[in-house]
Amino acid sequence: MNEALLYNLVIPAVKAVVAVLVVATVAGILTLIERRVLARLQVRQGPNRVGWNGVLQWVADVVKLIFKEDVVPANAERGIHFLAPLLVMMPALTVYAFIPWGPETVWNIPGIGAVKTGLYGTDVNVGLLLLVAITSIGVYGIILGGWASNSKYALMGGLRSAAQLISYEVPMGFALVAAILMSRSLSLVGIIEAQREAHLWFVFPGVVAFFLYFVSGVAETNRIPFDLPEAESELVAGFHTEYSGFRWAVFFLSEYANMITISAVATTLFLGGWLRPFPNVAWLSFLDVIPPVLWFVLKVAAFLFVYIWFRGTFPRYRFDQLMALGWKVLIPVSIANVLLVALAALWGLPGLKVLSVVLWVALGAGFFVVRKGEPKRRTVLEAGA
Amino acid sequence: MSDERAGTAASVPDSGEPMLGLREMELNFGPQHPSTHGVLRLVLKVDGERIVSARPDVGYLHRGTEKLFETETYPMVIPHTDRMDYVAAATNNHAYCLAVEKLLALEVPKRAQYIRVLLDELQRISSHLLWLATAAIDLGAITPFFYTFREREVILDLFEDYCGARLTLNCMRIGGLLEDLPPGWVERTRAFAEVFDKNVDEYEDLLTENRIWKQRTVGIGVLTAEQCIEWGVTGPPLRGAGFKWDIRRAIPYECYSELDFEIPAYPNADTYDRYLVRVAELRQSRRIVLQCCDWLLRNPEGEIRGKVPRVIKPVAGDVYAAVEAPKGELGFYLVSNGGNKPYRLRVRPPSFINLQALPEMAKGHLVADLVAIIGTIDIVLGEVDR
Fold it and tell me: Is residue B17 included in any domain, yes or no?
């Protein structure tokens, strides 16, 4: 086959189709995993009837949603109402063009021969920037969907969402800046390679940025404790109150796809992406039995579990409290962190290592002090109290 | 008295003037809304997300229960009381039976008193568990729901074994009880109560020191003791304002004066303190359940029904009797004209009277807090509307 045709058309096309199918499927399966894990946290069984132990539940759900009646409210802005779910889903899936699941490897494909390509759509040299740009398009879908529904609850949900997403983009952006400073690269593959060369996962010097990124990420994906746009008890279902059937499923799918995106980016920037732990320590090379892509998936899965764990544990913030947290706590901390990391990065690798030690010791000590200072409160009343 | 107050609550003047030409939005909150706990409708005037005024609109579940009482003979009224506060049927039965017994000057045997108190306290636990579950869900914490329902299920099973019903118990009769406890029931109840303290610890682990939970509840929906007394608010909201008023202690009925328990009260009058009061009451009710079980194990035999005339025809007169229901003071005002049916039976429902304070509590808060405030009042619309 023509070399240029193969590398410029066939492989990208195959990758695009595979990425979309895999992400859509994984997002579906994730809903099932979430329900099962949440059930375990809540002393119950979860869905366990469709297929073996309920593994086909998500298929049944999707089929049901496709065949459900598609209700559009009477005075809705039909065109925009139709467009909004697409506006949310398209960026959610587009970002998978940049997410690096595995390193560049040589594949022997029968009939074509050896093909050298990475387990990512493309390695753009401004990948991180592009990723942030594309994910922030999704907010248009949410706000337009809320507005076009002609429902007060949906409108309030959409407005909350817009405010929340825009606010939390800021600390998230600063957290990304810290990662860029450490790796001196905007390419996602480049950032992973930088971590291999530095012999250091960036979660060590960048623990604050890591924390900020993940917290903002939870807010960006509208998950508990930041799930205000769809706060069931206040706004019924937020911006997608008036959506049903497959359009609702598209919103739902995008939310889960975004969760995977946030987890994957956090893995890439801070946990060494597809690298095994301590990638340069020779005697740990037996860990290479697990292929790089599986390391990546494992790390992403750990993040997704934390997402579900949050959901089982936390109540929901109030809107103004959420804003206060974002603007008064996360943004100042993230700016301070950028300065700190920049100074350390200016010194070079030794600087990053010193920063790691200082930060982790400080965090450990801080955690210990906070735990000591907080007594367990109980409502036990003694006799005669 | 309470009717007049309801009138003023329903016509709270719109205090908020439109500011700078901004238009306030009128938001219809309910009756079909997941966190109004039934068919409560609130007409909100909101300025952004801030509540300018909240006007409760009740009556969607009105079934004319009080009129229905007048068409039934005295024993036939009891099942209708089940359907007022349908998550706390035992205390409803109890309050009604107390009123009739007071009018008849009937003596209830000791054993029946202990069983009644035991059922009341189990009911209080199950009602508070339901409250905790829904209040937590309203604020986005879904897990406490499953924990509390695990224990509530045990209590409902106990009820089912005793009287065949899980919610509409119909478990008490004028002058005592219909049936004695089945064999082994007291032991099982005691076994449940023994471990229940650990279960309450689990709920508290999830919520009491949870920062988000505290941020959402501390200082929200303040209703001071003075306001409570003005509005006639009783039960956990009153005790959450630091006022130790509990009918079980203040006007003891049945065997409560023989039992050892505390009246929990916390001073800050906000949603968080009302939460603490209810959780503390779970622990206190458990203590009462244990004491009742022990008494019943020591005294396994005894009468369960006093000397009730075959046809209940009290002399003409009127009487008021109240119990401390899980939600506050539940009273029955009974007027008899000497016939075999109540001439008038007026209910003092704690949910209805506590709900009147909602506009006061909600004013100036955000819509999200309104959900917390509805939750903290602990209303059952079956009792509000009757």
Answer: no
